[in-house]
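Open question from group meeting: does this chain pack into something compact, or does most of it stay loose? Before anyone orders reagents, we agreed to write out a predicted structure and look at it together. Recording both the input and the output here so the notebook holds the full record.
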Amino acid sequence: QAQLVESGGGLVHTGDSLRLSCTASGRLFNINSMGWYRQPPGKQREFVADINSGGTTNYANSVKDRFSISRDNAENTVYLQMNNLKPEDTAVYYCNANLGVYFTDKWNYWGQGTQVTVSS
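Structure tokens returned:
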């Protein structure tokens, strides 16, 4: 099968920066889009950003001017650079990817989540 492992969350102050990483591993033959979602306390999970295999990116309006998504195809890793963080960015951040995986029809995977807390 396959798995996504995230890292980089933590507790920061308003205006600080963080970089999240997510690495895909397993019996992979292809990695299509990779992206990030977040779930603020007491709210539903929401889209943050994604990037396809060609490098085209999409962002939620709330983060468009502050966050940047990128990927390292050689390392099967996607990054989310978060600048000028605000308290409303506080959430559990989840990596999501569409993967081609040998011996399974499953193609959409989620990471375990990493907590980002921004204090005012």
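Observations to bring back to the group:
The radius of gyration is 14 Å.
DSSP finds no helices and eleven strands in the chain.
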